[in-house]
Design goal:
about 800 residues; alpha/beta; three-stranded antiparallel sheet; 33 helices
């Protein structure tokens, strides 16, 4: 990045006097030369003192206003930052001093950005010269303000003998020098690089129309306009890597030949300019090394920091310097944060790790964020995240602390155990708000929306924790506690993962009863992903285990879910038998909620067999039972499915009422997926009545909501319904074709190749269908089954 210049760091004084002629030679910006007198006192006798005075001599110092280095090769991707900084430095501004403070963590490119900004400002003719001082804020001995002032005054041409001693006089001379420059028509830009405290910079603030750029790993408030410098975008990081390689060897074409490997290298470097420059240097030293090999080496999370050192520059050293500036408590919390399994952490969870009051933890977190070792999660208050490279460093530091002895190791183990218990207990508590109506709920959460919001915020942490504890009670507990939430939010891939983790934990722990429930839950998840054969196997295995243990209620649960999957496989007679068996068991045991679920699913299967009157009776019975138990969500599902049966009987007015009621109830419970299904079926009912504008509007609303929850299979169905409605309404062929194409695209995203091909065929045949319309349109969307998780 070019050599930095500035005030030299001060070490400890030896106490020896400097003799005349032993002073350091004159130099440019950045040398710590004092123009003070040095006095050596010697005791000659009791009560008598003789004093000898030696004066340090200096050569004249020329004006140095062109000290700004050029940015390194590959400077890119900072257009937004440059525009912001130039907006601050613009002499035409009237809303405050031209001072910009660039902050960000070590290696993110603050200094390079400052150089580029200074050159851009000079190119515009805004500044006649630049003063550069490196404050060494993160070295062992940071430069003091008086040292920086001396360096700046010498750059301005002040002779050593005219330098006042440290203090107010030196600051006054600095300001007067700049005021004199302004009166002479000059405008200077002061670049204070690598500051770590406001006190280092405050005396350097220029008066008048001069400008200033400050770089720091801390957010230094009260100096000027602040700008956080972040990592590069992926494409800019790759461009930097390529430019740095070609700067060493114009014939280096490794990035062009291995673009995917280059992207992996950039990702492993965290899109951090310093890491990319170091990596480019290492690749230049080994011109035969393929980028794939380098990417594989950097992909080792355990040793990634070892791979980001070229002998002269080291990311670990940069991080060490930042860590050393923290208090012991801040350092400790930074290390502890590496124990969190997911991408970010909430303040209450960090409080559990720190094992101290939340207010104290918040202060520590804020100071870590001000140091850019962590950052606030964008758009969310009370959550904090850490860059992957800093996480690796924090983990490395935590392991080093563990290695210091049994006591620190046990302390970190206890912190990890506290965090696990925090997540598991709250997941269990939140899950109670998703249970059947009438079930006891935890007071940790006020209501279902609050419980869902907590799950939303902690989902990735909880899944990561479950993955890290696949063979323990933790994995089992989280597998069962997370499932209902993931099903509610339609996170189906995640649902299969946590259900499989729970099953694995049950098998490892030889927990036969919970194993049956885990097989049943896995079957539900597989069915939702349309992996029907696997789902049948899972339910059949669960049923066998339930029969072995004599768990009657568990058997009813599995029979009901097995019937749903058999219906999806169009094995309708077997599905009716399964639902009827579940219903018989539930009636024998008096389980009203279970009966309602069985009646609902039986009604759907009867509808597939075109036994519509029986289907309507089944859904009405389910609705009555859900009303008796106070299950609002169950009522919504029953109303929706009742509407489908009424549509098939041509009772469209009643169907519209049923679907609208379902929509209202789903809005009350916050079930987005249920609302989308109700909108879709409301659209088919309107179509049956010839109310095409309302049908199209309802269908598009369904598409919008299903796309938002990424249920691509039902999105494909919903687009198909919109296409049918547009066709029935006589819409332009282009609109009908577009809807079928959207349907095909959605099905493709759901890996439903057969359905995607069918929609694509319909899109290609719209012109022919205009002349020869099909005898039968596709039926309304499937109703909503009621799977029974355990």
């Amino acid at each position: 990045m070019g050599g930095k210049s500035g005030a030299k760091r001060k070490g400890k004084k030896s106490g020896k006097s400097q003799k005349q002629g032993q002073g350091r030679p004159a130099g440019g910006v950045g040398n710590d030369y004092r123009a003070a007198d040095f006095t050596n006192s010697q005791v000659l006798g009791q009560g008598t003192m003789a004093v000898k005075t030696y004066v340090q001599q200096y050569a004249p110092v020329p004006t140095a206003l062109d000290a700004l280095p050029q940015p390194p090769a590959g400077f890119t991707g900072r257009e937004g930052d440059l525009a912001y900084i130039l907006g601050v430095l613009d002499p035409g501004r009237t809303d405050g001093p031209a001072v910009a403070v660039l902050s960000g963590w070590g290696g993110v490119g603050k200094t390079t950005l400052a150089y580029a900004s200074g050159h851009a400002a000079q190119k515009r003719g805004w500044y006649t010269g630049v003063l550069l001082v490196d404050l060494h804020g993160y070295d062992t001995y940071p430069a003091q303000a008086e040292d920086a002032l001396e360096a700046l005054l010498r750059s301005l041409g002040v002779r050593p003998e005219h330098l006042p001693p440290p203090g107010a006089g030196r600051e006054a001379l600095y300001r007067s020098q700049l005021n004199a420059r302004q009166e002479a028509g000059e405008r200077l830009l002061v670049v204070a690089d690598n500051a770590s405290a406001v006190a280092q910079v405050q005396p350097l603030l220029p008066p008048g129309h001069h400008g200033m750029l400050v770089t720091s790993r801390h957010r230094l408030t009260g100096l000027g306009r602040m700008r956080t410098v972040n990592s590069l975008q992926p494409e800019d990081a790759v461009a930097l890597l390529e430019a740095a390689l070609k700067n060493n060897d114009p014939d280096d074409v490794r990035v062009e030949q291995e673009p995917e490997a280059a992207e992996r290298v950039a990702s492993a470097c965290g899109y951090l300019p310093l890491a990319l420059q170091i990596t480019a240097a290492l690749l230049a030293q080994d011109p035969g090394q393929p980028l794939t090999e380098r990417a594989d080496a950097l992909g080792d999370a355990e040793g990634i920091l070892d791979g980001l050192s070229d002998g002269e520059r080291s990311l670990r050293t940069m991080f060490d310097q930042s860590l050393e500036r923290l208090t012991p408590q801040e350092q400790d919390l930074f290390r502890l944060l590496s124990l969190n399994p997911g991408p970010d952490i909430a303040t209450p969870a960090a409080t559990v790790l720190a094992d101290q009051p939340q207010a104290a933890t918040e202060r520590l977190l804020a100071r870590l964020a001000a140091s850019h070792l962590i950052e606030r999660t964008p758009g969310v208050r009370g959550r904090w995240q850490m860059h992957d490279l800093l996480r690796a460093y924090a983990h490395e530091q935590a392991e080093a602390t563990r290695g210091r002895g049994r006591a620190p190791s046990r302390r970190y183990d206890q912190a990890g155990e506290r965090l696990i218990d925090y997540y598991v207990q709250r997941a269990r508590a939140a899950n109670t708000h998703l249970d059947l109506p009438g079930s006891p709920v935890s007071s940790r959460f006020q209501d279902r929306p609050q419980a869902l919001a907590w799950f939303d915020a902690e989902r990735e942490n909880l899944i990561a924790l479950a993955l890290a504890h696949t063979s323990t009670e933790t994995g089992l507990d989280l597998g069962f506690a997370l499932g209902p939430y993931l099903h509610w939010r339609r996170r189906l891939q995640d649902l299969v993962v946590v259900r499989a983790l729970a099953l694995h934990a049950c098998q490892i722990l030889q927990n036969t009863d919970d194993e049956a429930g885990a097989w049943n839950n896995l079957g539900v998840a597989l069915g939702e992903l349309r992996r029907f054969d696997e789902a049948v196997h899972a339910h059949q295995t669960a049923l066998d285990l339930r029969q072995q243990t004599g768990n009657t209620q568990g058997q009813a649960r599995v029979w009901n879910n097995l019937g749903v999957v058999l219906g999806k496989l169009r094995r309708f007679d077997e599905a009716v038998h399964a639902h009827q068996t579940a219903l018989d068991i539930r009636q024998q045991t008096g389980n009203m909620h279970g009966q309602a679920s069985a009646w609902n699913n039986l009604g759907l299967t009867l509808g597939k067999l075109r036994r519509f009157d029986e289907a309507v009776h089944a859904h009405q019975t389910a609705l009555d039972l859900h009303e008796q138990t106070g299950d609002t969500h169950g009522q919504a599902t029953a109303w929706n499915n009742l509407g489908l049966g009424l549509e098939e009987l041509g009772r469209f007015d009643e169907a519209v009422h049923a679907h609208q009621t379902a929509l209202d109830l789903h809005e009350q419970t916050g079930d987005t997926h249920g609302q989308a299904t109700a909108w879709n079926n409301l659209g088919t009912a309107y179509r049956g009545m010839g109310r095409f504008d309302e049908a199209v509007a309802a269908g598009r609303r369904a598409v919008e909501m299903l796309s938002a929850v990424q249920d691509w299979f039902l999105t494909g169905e919903a687009w198909g319904e919109v296409a049918e409605t547009l066709s029935a309404a006589g819409a332009p062929p282009s609109q009908v074709r577009e809807a079928w194409e959207q349907s095909a695209t959605a099905y493709t995203r759901a890996d439903a190749d057969e359905e995607a091909a069918a929609s694509r065929t319909r899109a290609d045949a719209v012109e022919a269908l205009e002349k020869h319309p099909p005898a039968e349109t596709q039926p309304p969307s499937d109703g909503m089954s009621l799977p029974e998780n355990e």
